[in-house]
Write a structure and sequence with these properties.
About 35% of the residues are buried. The chain has a two-stranded parallel sheet with strand order 1-2. It is globular and about 75 Å long. By secondary structure, the protein is mainly α. The two termini are about 50 Å apart. It has one domain. Keywords: Membrane, Signal, Transmembrane, Transmembrane helix.
Length: about 400
């Protein structure tokens, strides 16, 4: 219903939209009467979309795809990851955190470099039979494990980096774009100029994507072909018949790395799932969920910065406030409930009546908060574009950079 209401707002003129509680008339002493110090609506939209694209496209580091994929399939695969980063950036942060911890643990345990660890987690090493080497169980195999481990250690780090389609310069350019946009928003606030809702939402994307860039800084970008390691021919090799799972199963179970019936089996596939990372112990998993929850809370908190913005209607103002508030609090609620479950799991307290009650409360909190969170995020995506139909005059006034850097 909220989405239908937003569509209704778009199709009507701002002056004819019914307002239950009229807002105060828009007044501003900053009027754009000098073309050299002004910006157009196109400039606002273009700057925001370019920043969002730079943040999400460059930050998307896909796992190694299956062999013999066309460029169109590879482009669609990366586009999916980019759209996931736009719709749910905290999921991308969670994946990046999982692979970061996995690479860190592997590098210490097996004397890898961090780049080797990332390449291992993303399915970059495969056997001569064609299946990926991506679990510690495979490295612990008494027959093939030593061969796999020796083959991985013999791969030079520079050879792995050479497969990457990105380097520090390309990632740095995207990072600078995000920092520059953030600087502009802070300067507008300092000079008491209006920051549109679209710019606030873009700022949230830029800040959250900093997490992804830092976590995936050493991960090779857009690798299309894996490295074969281990013995040249495996004994009694059986043909690989990849198991077909539903899209939701592939996304959910691969992201969390565990399930009862759909655990990923590298011996029955030619590549890892899109959101796969090597399974890890409970403590790094807690840290992963904590980082993802922190990113989600920051994303919502930044959007709360537009709490007192001059919205076209009262209804839109309250929709924005409610959505940003839910987006800020829901990740924290989910993280706290999972943390409590982790603490009491496997203890005698879990079997008590109080333990059962806490588990039931946690389950209800997750069941209620997650759908509300998803609905709030769905509403906050189109709302900034809807608000562009009526902006305050100071939104078109450009930042006076000479106030900070003379002679500009």
């Amino acid at each position: 219903m909220l989405l239908l209401f937003l569509v209704h707002l778009v199709t009507k003129r701002a002056s004819t939209t019914p307002v239950a509680l009229p807002l105060a008339p828009r007044t501003s002493t900053d009027i754009c009467d000098d073309i050299n110090n002004c910006r157009k609506l196109f400039d606002i939209v273009w700057g925001c979309l370019a920043t969002i694209f730079a943040c999400t496209w460059v930050s998307a580091h896909p796992n190694v795809p299956p062999p013999n994929q066309s460029w169109l399939v590879l482009f669609r695969h990366r586009l999916k990851m980019m759209l996931t980063g736009i719709v749910a950036p905290e999921i991308m942060v969670g994946l990046a955190a999982r692979q970061f911890w996995g690479a860190r643990i592997l590098s210490k345990k097996y004397n890898f470099t961090r780049t080797h660890g990332f390449f291992f987690c993303m399915g970059g090493f495969v056997s001569s039979a064609g299946y990926p080497i991506t679990t510690e169980e495979q490295l612990a195999d008494p027959d093939l494990g030593p061969e796999f481990l020796k083959g991985i250690q013999n791969v030079d780090e520079e050879d792995i980096k050479d497969k990457s389609k990105g380097d520090a310069l390309s990632k740095g350019v995207a990072l600078v774009q995000g920092l520059w946009f953030t600087t502009q928003c802070l300067a507008r606030v300092h000079q008491h100029l209006a920051v549109t809702e679209l710019e606030v939402a873009t700022l949230a994307f830029a800040v959250v994507n900093i997490f992804i860039w830092l976590l995936w800084w050493n991960k090779p970008l857009d690798v299309q072909r894996p490295v074969v390691v281990g013995p040249p021919k495996l004994p009694d090799t059986q043909p690989i018949n990849p198991r077909q799972l539903s899209r939701w199963d592939r996304f959910f179970y691969a992201f969390w790395g565990r399930s009862a019936d759909y655990d990923y089996d590298p011996l029955s596939s030619t590549s890892v799932p899109s959101f796969w990372s090597s399974p890890m112990e409970i403590n790094p998993l807690r840290g992963t969920v904590g980082i993802a929850a922190l990113a989600g809370c920051m994303f919502g908190a930044i959007q709360c910065a537009a709490w007192k913005n001059d919205f076209p209607t009262t209804a839109e103002m309250w929709i924005w406030r409610a959505g940003s508030l839910v987006t800020t609090t829901s990740p924290a609620v989910v993280f706290l409930t999972l943390l409590v479950d982790y603490i009491i799991y496997g203890t005698t307290f879990e079997e008590t009546a109080l333990g059962d009650a806490i588990s039931a409360i946690n389950l209800i909190a997750n069941v209620v908060s997650i759908p509300i969170y998803m609905m709030s995020r769905a509403v906050l995506i189109p709302l900034p574009f809807v608000a562009l139909r009526s902006l305050p005059p100071s939104a078109f006034v450009d930042v006076n950079w000479s106030a900070y850097i003379p002679h500009i």
